[in-house]
Write a structure and sequence with these properties.
The protein has 122 residues and is mainly alpha-helical. The protein is built from 5 helices and 3 strands; from the N terminus they run H-H-E-H-H-E-E-H. A 3-stranded antiparallel β-sheet has the order 1-3-2. Strand 2 and strand 3 form a beta hairpin. The N and C termini lie far apart (63 Å).
């Protein structure tokens, strides 16, 4: 005789409850997003200074990424046209800090590490 409630399959990685995590990973996986968060983590920056710190990111791409981060509620654009992390952006930066510290400890083992670039922030 069949039971009234069939056994539930174990939750998979694509379970609807995981949608926020997957959405966040997709956001952070977009080129320049993590770098922008990294550069804004210490404090407010104007667009030109942010672009200068982001090596070869074009102005148009940086504008798109800033709009994406604003839409996600992670940064805000101030009246003086500078950008800074929102409380949610700061919370995300704090959550990312262990990954940034791990990268610093393992920077010489990672592919694409350029020894003439400064070490990652402590």
């Amino acid at each position: 005789m069949r039971s009234a409630n069939p056994p539930r399959a174990p939750r998979g990685r694509a379970d609807p409850a995981d949608a926020p995590v997957l959405s966040t990973m997709e956001l952070l996986g977009q080129r320049w997003i993590l770098r922008a968060l990294w550069e804004l983590e210490p404090g407010r920056l104007g667009f030109l200074e942010l672009r200068r710190r982001m090596d070869n990111c074009s102005s148009s791409m940086l504008s798109v990424r800033m709009q994406t981060l604003q839409s996600a509620g992670l940064i805000t654009k101030n009246a003086d046209k500078s950008y800074e992390l929102t409380p949610a952006g700061t919370e995300l930066a704090v959550a990312l800090r262990p990954a940034w510290e791990w990268a610093r400890r393992h920077q010489h083992d990672l592919p694409g590490t350029n020894s003439d670039r400064p070490d990652l922030r402590a």
